[in-house]
Amino acid sequence: VALGAFDVTVVDASTGEVVATYERQWGDAPTDSSDPTLQLRLLCMRPAGRGDSSVRSSLPEDLVAFLDSEQPKGLAADLRVLRDESAQRGWCAAVEGMARSLRLTGGVDRASVALSAARAAAGDARVGYDEAVDLGVYDDALRMLEGGGRHADDELGA
């Protein structure tokens, strides 16, 4: 363990590989700066160890209740989804993605979590249009294709 002015670094003594780096915490209040993603790989292999983990304590209550009700095989699969999405989109987006998937579908399948996590990571930017979207132009195009020889400029007003 290397203690710096602004961070604490944990290093594997035999290889010199940096295992984790934490920003030093200041002040009188107790803090917890542990990164839950550091435990995910181990928990995927041994999901029963999740009970006292920082992963469990970092999740919203409804997600904890759902994961607590899972059988070991399903729990391991769900933890792998959390691990993979955390690696790709970050911890907060992955947790939000799992929570949204659970709320909207009643489960946490990989596709729903990936989509929800991607939206959360992107800030849920909603596309707004100045005018109402009119898909009728596609109906006109299909009619034109069915009718054959009419000119697109005349038919579509292009």
Question: Can you give a write-up of this model?
Answer:
With 158 residues, this protein is mainly alpha-helical. It folds into two domains: 1-33, no CATH class; 35-127, no CATH class. 53% of the residues lie in helices and 8% in strands. It is built from eight helices and three strands; from the N terminus they run E-E-E-H-H-H-H-H-H-H-H. A three-stranded antiparallel beta sheet has the order 1-2-3, with no helix packed on it.
Strand-helix topology:
Layout: E1 2-3, E2 7-11, E3 18-23, H1 37-45, H2 54-57, H3 61-69, H4 72-89, H5 91-105, H6 110-121, H7 136-147, H8 152-156
Antiparallel strand pairs: 1-2, 2-3
Helix pairs in contact: 1-4, 4-5, 4-6, 5-6
For the record, the count of structural domains works out to: 2
| Sheet with most strands | 3 strands, antiparallel
Order of helices and strands: EEEHHHHHHHH
Order of strands across the widest beta sheet?
1-2-3
